[in-house]
Amino acid sequence: MGYNGGVDFPRRLFLNTETKQGDAPVLFVGDDPALDFINTAYGVDEGHDHFVNDASVVDWLKQAGMLSDEHGEAAYKGLLDSALELRAAGRKLVEQRQAGQWANPAVLNRILALGSHHLELQWKKGGEPALVPKQTNRDAAAVLLPVADALARLLAETDFALVRKCECDDCTLLFRDRTKSRRRRWCSMALCGNRMKVAAFRARQKG
User: Fold this and answer.
1) Domains: count for the chain
2) What is the mean pLDDT of the chain?
3) In this model, does residue 8 exceed pLDDT 50?
4) Which of 59, 125, 154, 197 could hold 34 in an S-S bridge, CB 3.0 to 4.6 Å?
5) pLDDT of res. 10
6) For residue 198, pLDDT beyond 80
7) How far apart are CA 152 and CA 156, in angstroms?
């Protein structure tokens, strides 16, 4: 599976209002899988949160194309706690990186250390044999490895002048500017861009 939210794909808004966990629709506006993961909680005091249970984290990973090996429900028990811990640590790391300050990557490195994969030959009757990557480590947190890898690469390899917060005052969404002009200001034109332009127009009219 490939990430559905931005890397190697044109920038777009993915607002899924049919699949909702808690009161938060799924948003993919960050143009980077790590930022989209952090953006699963947004709004004032992060009042909108897509992650409310283990299943909601699995749901997000599926929609992001970052769940490479599916297991039964029991295999994901405790995933929510790991996802919330990684998300909080990831947000802190990104904020500190933006500020040019040091932050402790211990939580991220702990998830990265769970990485262990092997190839398995699958051969269904009537079909052709195929090699399929399998996850060796069955710790639920290991499911977050693609996210941890994306976060590590974002922090180490990305020009952070292009990692920004939406300029709308009440929006907390982060994005990576991949536009040619490098002048992207909003999480998306549909969510905040048009709203801010209308507000600015009305302010000029009153002036």
Assistant:
1) 1
2) 83
3) no
4) 154
5) 31
6) no
7) 6
Assigned token pair, 70 = 């599916």
φ, ψ for residue 37, nearest 5 deg: -65, -45
Residue 8 falls within a domain, yes or no?
Answer: no
The pairs formed by 148-153 with CB atoms below 8 angstroms and a separation of 24 or more are 148/86, 148/108, 148/111, 148/112, 149/112, 149/115, 150/3, 150/7, 150/32, 150/33, 150/34, 150/37, 151/34, 151/37, 151/86, 151/90, 151/93, 151/108, 152/105, 152/108, 152/112, 153/34
Structural domain containing residue 182: 14-206
CA distances from 89 to 78, 106, 117, 137, 149 (A): 17, 9, 25, 22, 14
Q: Alpha-carbon distance 135 to 116, whole Å?
A: 6
The C-alpha atoms of residue 52 and residue 63 are separated, in whole angstroms, by 16
For residue 154, tell me if it sits in a domain.
Answer: yes
Residue 170 in this model has a pLDDT that exceeds 70:
yes
| b/e burial code for range 133-165 (CB count within 10 A of at least 16 → b) | eebeeeebbbbbbbbbbbbbebbeebeeeebbe
Distance CA 117, CA 50 (A): 28
pTM for this model (two decimals): 0.79
Count other C-beta atoms under 10 Å from residue 87's C-beta: 24
